[in-house]
Amino acid sequence: MAPLDGIRVLELCHFLAGPYAGLVLADLGADVLKVEDPAHPDDARSMGPHFQGGQSLYFLALNSGKRSIGVRLTTDEGRAVVEDLVRSSDVVIDNYRPGVLARFGLGHDALHAVNPAVVTCSLTGYGETGPDATRAGYDYTIQALAGVMSLAGEPDGPPTKAGISYVDHSGGITAALGVCAALVERARTGVGSHVDLALFDVQVSMLTYLASWQRNRSAEFGRTANSAHPTLVPAQNFRTADGHLALFIGNDGMWRRFAAAIGDATLAEPRFDTREGRLEHRDEVIDRVQRVLLGATSREWEARLGEVGVACGAVNSVAGALAEPQTHARGLVVQEEHPAYGRYEHLRGPLPTRGRESLGPAPLLGEHTAEALAAIGYAEARIAELRAAGVVS
Q1: Residues with Cβ < 8 Å from 357, sequence gap 6 or more?
Q2: Beta bridge pairs of residue 34
Q3: Residue-wise pLDDT tens for the chain (393 aa)?
């Protein structure tokens, strides 16, 4: 059994952060029922540029292992259908702006009135309180506002975003954590609670030691060449004979092993033995290390330095990361088969050793409507009536 077997989640989400939270919960065993309004389905379904069997690979990547029900949320009958689903659910997650679902009569207070034991979680850009509560928030803009873009890129270049939507992904993981914590709390109290998850909160929280340095020592931060760490030396990207190597010397013992492994007599001098000494002589250390590392390929350095416990890694492409033996060993890439999509591969959630071996394919819009409604007591005739009226699809 997976940890969340027996937990039913209604997901009213679109695009990335919310669906990724649902994917994590599904991978951990939850039965995730994706609720979409057929008039306004998840925009990820039409997200290009890559499609398979007429379906967006972007959508497939974020929604494997879920079931789908199409319900017109703007109608009274549609709202009643959602309320009936809530009665038999443990969790409801959404990533609409604050107040949007409340206008449909589906805000978290209304859902708790229907089922006091349900856990609700809303993922928004800036949370449900404060002056920015109703402000539009996307990964790009939150990376900027939270100070992270100011730290990325070369010193003489413009601020730079991260290569992936890590605000959305870390927000989704944190939402899943918040849901699990609320489920533990419910086990004690018998009452569900609401998780107000702000992507901005998550990102500011991740500033950790930088925030402490700034608040307590008025530290100022700038971009560093080659993605260098501000105080640890050498800890940055270096050119090699065939690409780049990320090298991170985290302590003095690792430095001594590194200096011995590369065989540079100057770097073995006592003045470089300590973190403080290497920082004081940063330019000289970086210059000598760079000259040495140009003498072999990234993979050759990985093997050589790995033997003595030095942290390093070739700077991979996405294809290279997916081809890593460790990726295969951890079972991170899985394959699904669907009659409409055909065969496709996707990634599992971040806890593969705790999750399900097979998630199953992403659903077509409304693929499980009849199945889900029948499971909560709807007669076949009633489901047909709702379909004919356009309330469900």
Answers
A1: 331
A2: 11, 68
A3: 899 999 999 999 999 999 999 999 999 999 999 999 999 999 999 999 999 888 999 999 999 999 999 999 999 999 999 999 999 999 999 999 999 999 999 999 999 999 999 999 999 999 999 999 999 999 999 999 999 999 999 999 999 999 999 999 999 999 999 999 999 999 999 999 999 999 999 999 999 999 999 999 999 999 999 999 999 999 999 999 999 999 999 999 999 999 999 999 999 999 999 999 999 999 999 999 999 999 999 999 999 999 999 999 999 999 999 999 999 999 999 999 988 889 999 999 999 999 988 899 999 999 999 999 999 999 999 999 999 999 999
Query: Looking up tokens 């949320």, which residue turns up?
Result: 73
Rounded to two decimals, the pTM is 0.96
Q: Tell me which of 27, 168, 196, 242 is the catalytic residue.
A: 168
Cis peptide before 234 (omega within 30 of 0): yes
* Sheet containing strand 67-70, strands side by side: 67-70, 31-36, 8-12, 91-94, 119-124, 194-198
Architecture of the domain made up of 225-239+244-314: 2-Layer Sandwich (3.30)
Q: Which of 337, 358, 322, 317 is CA-nearest to residue 52?
A: 337
Domain-by-domain residue ranges, the chain? 8-205+354-388, 225-239+244-314
Fold of 8-205+354-388: Rossmann fold (3.40.50)
Q: Catalytic site residue 168?
A: yes
For residues 361 and 67, what is the distance between their CA atoms, to the nearest angstrom? 9
Please work out, in degrees rounded to the nearest 5, the angle formed at the alpha carbon of residue 196 by the alpha carbons of 75 and 127: 90
CATH topology match: 8-205+354-388 vs 225-239+244-314:
no
